[in-house]
What does this fold into?
Amino acid sequence: MKTWSVNWAQMPLLFYYEKSYHFTLMKILFFIPLIFTFAAYGEGPSEDSVAISAEGLSSSDVPAKARSDSLKEAINIGSLQIITQLIGDAKLEKNLNIIKTKILGQTSKYVQFYKASEPNKKGSDTTTQVNMKISISSLRAILAQEGLLYQSEGPATVLPLIRLVEKKDGGRSYRWWLEEQSPENSFLRDQEKAILRQFDGVFRPRNFYLIDPVTAHHVQWVPDPYRTDVLTQEDILWIGDFFKAQMVIIGDAVLEPGVVQGGAKLNVKLSAYHTSNGRVVGEIGQSFESNSSDWELSVAQVMKKAFADVSRDLSTQVFEEWTRGTFGATLVRVVLKGPFGYKEVENFRQQIVGKMGDVKTIRERRLEMGSATFEVDASGGLSNLVKRIEGATFDGFKVTVDNQTGDEVTLRWAKVGSR
It folds into this structure.
């Protein structure tokens, strides 16, 4: 809902323009919203909003146009400052034309509030100072729609590393990165191809490209040290990077005899890793069962049913992380110490998200008397986050850096005034 509040001190300006330039009534009505204070989504800012001030300039000699243009430029400048914090300087520069045409045209969706000063003449130019509040979550969502929050170069590419195992007498196995095609693994190889088709069917509509290493016979390109049944996390990330994938889906699909003779039970456990930083961006573990009396028919049935659910659920998790812009973020730990209670901890968490545009998410991991530990997704890593925290002003409290080691920073909390 839009709300408007009149700045009565500025009302004589309207009559001045009417008298001097003979504006029509329609022109006055069009001009009024630029003078009033505008709240795009209600009167109060949301918890994830960040306040920013910017100055816009116009060289027009028509007062109404000069004010309108300088106001628009100020909002765009403020927007670009926040966008830079979210995606970085390099990506901003590379995609500036897209941002100007597709993002800045949607300011009403993420600028929650703005208030413009009186226009000020500087020589032949007109300047307008604008204070505004920008919704970080709304801006992130718009950037994500255009694929601008994904911080790896190239397409969003997914490499599956899914091992199929029959856990029974004479059981077979198939791992595409380990073994060549053979009569012994042909059945499970066909099942793997069917799994990949299901994953492709849910990832492709969300603009993720799924690599099919089975059909493409990628095993021939895997170096010998990585042709192993058990892959370490380092191996997983190396293989993902080797095949130019931004994400790797790793895990097992283990088949064992079911309750019914000839039936099959399937246990699936998969994790999705981002290859640039090793972060888990999706996890799933489920069991399924088929009651057919024929083993291979039962396997085919349970695999089809299971991976229809698994692929959909895992793609949803991955897409949500991608939408929040956490793929390119670095996971760091923030320890807060001081004489605070739960309300103060929640206030700290909300203000970190609201004031730090490069913080994607913050999660509480441990809460003790006088100490709270958070897991934070932050673009630019820990050093950049610490600099931003040191330069920020918080409402009702202050924090100082007590210690910084590796991927962890300890902050000292102290209350100031009242909030």
